[in-house]
Amino acid sequence: MDDTDLLESYRRFLADRVLPLETRFLAEGFAVVEPALAEVRAAAHEEGLWAPQLPRSLGGLGLPLAEFAEVARVLGRSPLGHYAVNCQAPDAGNLELLIDHGTDDQKRTYLEPLARGEIRSCFAMTEPGRAGSNPVWMDTRAVRDGDGWRIDGRKWFASSAEGAAFAVVVAVTDPEAERHRRATLFIVPTDTPGYRLERNLPVMGEAGSGWASHGEVVLEGCRVPAGTLLGGEGEGFRMAQERLGPGRIHHCMRWVGIAERALEALCRRASERELAPGTPLAERGVVKEWIADTAIELEAARGMVRRAAAAVDRLGSRGARVEISMIKVFTARVMLDALDRAIQVHGGLGVTDLAPDPLAWLWRHERAARIYDGPDEVHRQVVARAMLKRFGGTPGGSGA
Amino acid sequence: MDDTDLLESYRRFLADRVLPLETRFLAEGFAVVEPALAEVRAAAHEEGLWAPQLPRSLGGLGLPLAEFAEVARVLGRSPLGHYAVNCQAPDAGNLELLIDHGTDDQKRTYLEPLARGEIRSCFAMTEPGRAGSNPVWMDTRAVRDGDGWRIDGRKWFASSAEGAAFAVVVAVTDPEAERHRRATLFIVPTDTPGYRLERNLPVMGEAGSGWASHGEVVLEGCRVPAGTLLGGEGEGFRMAQERLGPGRIHHCMRWVGIAERALEALCRRASERELAPGTPLAERGVVKEWIADTAIELEAARGMVRRAAAAVDRLGSRGARVEISMIKVFTARVMLDALDRAIQVHGGLGVTDLAPDPLAWLWRHERAARIYDGPDEVHRQVVARAMLKRFGGTPGGSGA
Amino acid sequence: MDDTDLLESYRRFLADRVLPLETRFLAEGFAVVEPALAEVRAAAHEEGLWAPQLPRSLGGLGLPLAEFAEVARVLGRSPLGHYAVNCQAPDAGNLELLIDHGTDDQKRTYLEPLARGEIRSCFAMTEPGRAGSNPVWMDTRAVRDGDGWRIDGRKWFASSAEGAAFAVVVAVTDPEAERHRRATLFIVPTDTPGYRLERNLPVMGEAGSGWASHGEVVLEGCRVPAGTLLGGEGEGFRMAQERLGPGRIHHCMRWVGIAERALEALCRRASERELAPGTPLAERGVVKEWIADTAIELEAARGMVRRAAAAVDRLGSRGARVEISMIKVFTARVMLDALDRAIQVHGGLGVTDLAPDPLAWLWRHERAARIYDGPDEVHRQVVARAMLKRFGGTPGGSGA
Amino acid sequence: MDDTDLLESYRRFLADRVLPLETRFLAEGFAVVEPALAEVRAAAHEEGLWAPQLPRSLGGLGLPLAEFAEVARVLGRSPLGHYAVNCQAPDAGNLELLIDHGTDDQKRTYLEPLARGEIRSCFAMTEPGRAGSNPVWMDTRAVRDGDGWRIDGRKWFASSAEGAAFAVVVAVTDPEAERHRRATLFIVPTDTPGYRLERNLPVMGEAGSGWASHGEVVLEGCRVPAGTLLGGEGEGFRMAQERLGPGRIHHCMRWVGIAERALEALCRRASERELAPGTPLAERGVVKEWIADTAIELEAARGMVRRAAAAVDRLGSRGARVEISMIKVFTARVMLDALDRAIQVHGGLGVTDLAPDPLAWLWRHERAARIYDGPDEVHRQVVARAMLKRFGGTPGGSGA
């Protein structure tokens, strides 16, 4: 099966199995469609579409990031697409962490069932009291307690905490260390005493449920054994960053898929909706401008994301961090603008949850794209610093 | 009580009585806070703040539009502010229609209890099958039926239909007439057989309730007596436009209030949130740019809205329609950008419904500001045509 | 003669006397039209239009700033308008300095002939080696030398230096003082030995001539007597700032005039130019958007400038500095966007110097509007700091 | 010599030979540096860098468009770069026309000396009286006259007409034909009686000279023999479009080079210029935003241009017209924004012609990039129509 065939298979899978569940998901929530999605996931296994990003040894397709990017784009068209084949955040990131840093025991207990889609997980890093954009400043502490550790703290935006079998928790183990060496990761089973999902955050009017929710988690005297430490002590910040690199690419690919869907919805509505008998909206010059600008920006974003994915394959996510920061800023903006224009062309229908495509849902829930995994401002600083380093001292007319 | 005192009274009223209800309204809906709001409304009566826009003969304060604009701005800070003193859409517009065009009987039956806040109403014009931006193209028909009329059709975005005592319905009475003379207004009590509120539209994830909802209304063989006809036959389009003029100003004033609140929230968060110990967000240059741009655009909008209100007082809403179109486009954009920046500076908190100010709620529900009462595109055309008429033929260097 | 009549007189004066000189000015430079302009200036005297901003005692009309704003807007339509009635920069600012701070002797020698338009002047503050946006950091030194002072330094962007009878020079007199108290102003006649106009700067491809030029000035051992010190020692920074306040308003008014001209040119071209036989450009939706956006932004700018002018009349330029910073940023942007759109609608003609209105000339020479008298960034900081001070600490829902 | 080596050679060639001539070119014009450029061109021959876009049989390097794109980007950094190796507009386009459509005689007489750089040429299509954006509407007529043709009409924006040995003139030969079949191309030697270069247009204040000028050309009873007809009768429109496709890519590549230079200038100035002792501009958050946004947009543009070049190699310029329209709009905007930001960070120096990089010159002369070879609006329409065709009818959730 060559690349084009594979993409075509994902397209058909999305159209035939995933999109039919969207309306109920949007209206009634994740918990309601979870059983139906379980069947879809089983079908993904059968059709050879399961976990495109995972190595074959774990039951996946083993695609390099540059190829996975295309799949992620196709699946990204629907809020349920990634989940349907087990490449969804936050599990995808946790899978990578476990692959790279898990002990044999951790792999057996957490990685394998996660890869098979039998359990879900979450990642608990951001804290309500501290700026998410400064990941080295956190209050959650883990202190040695006998053989193990005792963790105390409060986390939020732990996406998919509801129903997760375990959380990967970032906690400060050495507050006196150099600031990038203070934190450590722990695998905390959610049934550990002292771990508590306090609530699902009301995000844009919805607390959500299950995988489609964002939890606020409290750890109070939460005791975990030594074997739950993931990676090395003091490696938490570095590993979290390492995890975020490909995660951002996954998001960007997904956003390109969303923007593509928005562009299509924009074109379709412009063609079908009449302003007056026989005069479709598409005849208005300004509607054509929206279409053109969306198409142009999308073309730009698509190419940038591909190149960044190839750069990660080649250089690792640390080596490609400037490229990653670039696409994070650019793609989020392109997606949100595409959705905004698509809403506008739908008129009143656009702000309801009744449009043929979930434009309003995507627009309000993806607003966070400019915030999570580093706000635009932080990524722009990364880019600027790299450029200043590259060009700040060189002589005038030369250069790449 | 001079102007400044009056505004100060409204400010205190808002802070003391209205804002405390916001959190419950946002989390649990209008129906839940309606009883508490009834008490607030009683207090508004007692404190001499009731219905600032209505004539004294109807129990209001009789403010001209230019003065009401300031009140509306103060109250606009909260989604509940206008409702609390009975100057909220859609009732405010219906009140004006009834004042200007109601028969004595209609005034006694509908205007007076509406002015006293004993009943609510809605306005049913937009149709799901037709572009709202072309108000002369609609399918709802009213045909003579004995002494009265029989109305058939489907309307949506009939805001506040749930709980309304009557609807003002726009229906085509003469499909063969010149296109601006086809429609007529009818007052349809909501208990009339054949009138049915089919559902509250799910807008941005919420169907809402009571005054804070947008209804889809079906009229099937709905018979109303002759006395329900409001204004003249064939006058429906003209009256609806006349109603929208001041309505748009009311919205713009409210949006300025929202933008002011967003700017304050932006400044407060920037001052209080630390990026690192001792370093507030406000020290970031880009945050200062957001603050400055918001403040500048808001200052521009505030002045424009004042001038447009004065123009309506002077020239009527038809005479000031270019000014009205200008502020509709400009103010909606300023408000949405202000909210967007305020959300961004709040980080993750900004997309939740937990922030001290309801930024995410306002941002998603006011997205419709660029659509309702004429989308941006239509208002820009009004402005452009006026400019082309004024300048398209005049010689070069001269002019106003 | 009431206000409207006065404006109408300025409009006619501009159309009849000033605009006819524009083409030659643009093609051949200021020096070539200077004799013709002298006749225009004589006519301004005769017609009672001379120096609207100056007090009657100095032969002007004594208009308050809010009224002068309207005149400045009308005259601003042409690059020669302000010069024609002696309210042009940099002389207007120097006139204010001399009125407020000049000794009797300085008034007789410099103020009176300047007010009569017999001589011209320049203002020498910015230095090539130092950021203009930090006016307290300069290298030009004045040291006591016998009874007088010896000044050494290099200045640039001394507008209108060519042909000026004297320069007002900002020089550091006490480098050890608190940084706002280091500088002092000196009136330096341009025939003083050691003062030298090194060249007219090539700005946007043109070195210009006479009043329409920007000089680089060298002071080498330039000795001036004690009586040339203007205002108090150490008062230079404060006086320069004081001078800039109204100066910025003058510029903003002028820019509004330019934007109005651009809007008219845009409408006219859109009406007249055919894309195909019988199809004017104005029928394109996007052209209408340009027209509408320009008109809306211009309406916003016009109102803001008026309010800022009234604020300066009421509070002084220091009291109104936030308003001034707001309009500086906003109006410059509105003007440049208006010109840019007008150029675009003119197609190839727009980038030539052959269009009926000097769009390309204004666009390239007014690009500096976002830089001179404080770049956008600095003014945005002023605005942001004021907002942070006002709102950074106040409680949530209240406020103006 | 592999690709990287070749690019490195061009970089060195540009730095060593071309950039040193820039200052004189900008200050004194093309004619003054033409002799020095002749030596540079000779060196290009010697160093194997001549005419990278031409086939080897004509003395070029025979690079496919995708490879030439990289060279064009490197050379595009300087206004003289393309000229230095004979890949400059308008000759590059005329060379292509002659290669594809020239008769043996035309090739011998015009193509070969042009390829060798012994003569120059121009292209005369746009007319002052007709919208350049509608290339099928023109007034210039060619009528049969004996064996040959008599041409009458007026053209402008015939770039490089001064000094050209021949002009390729577009003239209507059959006004009654279908509108895309009316025009024909003619090779008109500039010494033909009846052909007259009336003037160099004053563009952004400069009439320019030689290759760096834009001519207005008059043809009055200009008789040319039959052998001057280039391609087929009635093929003029199609051939002109065919010529423009790769021409637009050439421009876009060049613009990317300009934007790269602007970004470098921006970074360098930000690093070097101090706002206060020890505080470079680069420490300002807003300057970092400018740098980041420029870098991001440039990265997007660079990739898009490469893909479009590859598409032209693969599909021809007609097959890749949507891609070409996309990059035309996007790249012009990116370049102009990059220049604008670079100017802003240079402060007063930025608007002079004294900055280390010719920012102000590029900014004002490349403003035309949004106009020539089709204004933004026309290209957006091309893109929008393609999208509407692709998506306007397809069902919702599927698609590419």
Commentary on this structure:
The structure is a homotetramer of 400-residue chains. Chain A is 52% helix and 15% strand. By secondary structure, chain A is α+β, with helices and mostly antiparallel strands. The two termini of chain A are 40 Å apart. The model of chain A is unreliable at 394-400 (pLDDT under 50). In chain A, the strands form three sheets. The first copy, chain A, has a four-stranded mixed β-sheet, covered by helices on one side. The first copy, chain A, is built from twelve helices and ten strands. In chain A, helix 1 (3-28) runs antiparallel to helix 2 (30-46) and helix 3 (65-76) packs antiparallel against helix 8 (285-319). Chain A has helices at residues 3-28, 30-46, 65-76, 81-84, 91-101, 104-115, 236-272, 285-319, 321-346, 348-351, 359-365, 376-391, and strands at 121-124, 141-145, 148-159, 166-172, 183-189, 195-200, 214-224, 229-230, 274-276, 279-280. In chain A, a hairpin with a 2-residue loop joins strand 2 (141-145) and strand 3 (148-159). The first copy, chain A, has three domains: 3-102, Butyryl-Coa Dehydrogenase, subunit A, domain 1, CATH 1.10.540.10; 121-230, Butyryl-CoA Dehydrogenase, subunit A, domain 2 (Beta Barrel); 238-391, Up-down Bundle (Butyryl-CoA Dehydrogenase, subunit A, domain 3). Chains in contact: A-B, A-C, A-D, B-C, B-D, C-D. Chains A and D meet through helix 1, helix 7, helix 8, helix 9 and helix 12 of A and helix 1, helix 7, helix 8, helix 9 and helix 12 of D.
